Amino acid sequence: MSAKYELIHTEEGAFPVTLMTQILGIERTGYYAWKNRQDTEPDPESRRGRRQIVADRVYALWLASNKVYGIRRIHKDLAAEGITVSLGLVAAIMRELGIAGVQPRATKRTTIPAADAQDRADLVRREFNPPVPTTHLVSDITYLKTGEGWLFLATVIDLTT
Hints:
By secondary structure, the protein is α+β, with helices and mostly antiparallel strands. It is 43% helix and 12% strand.
């Protein structure tokens, strides 16, 4: 909701407030109440004031992390600063601010060619349907990321079956 109010605030001189609130589907009085709250310092004793202070800290921590930190990291940093809030409140504030953390992707280099890869002979000779079982066996290995770490899956396949 605050994003709509900020949009109106930036365009207030160019367009009538009444028109912008109608287009965005919000109450004009709600915008003016928001605007008045922006001009005054939040009262840390009030619920709204405390939430505003927490929201300001959340946004500052997110910017300080190069826009990478997510809900849990920001929650941990707030706790380290002595600000006690729930994980749900941090999530709600980040959602309202339109910010999110960046999840690192699990990467594993799986193909490392051997130095003598070009010199190896093709032992199967492109015969993928041999008549006799167990004469042509092929294998492969792959890496699987699990909650406990990386696992390796090795397979052996009989080309006849």
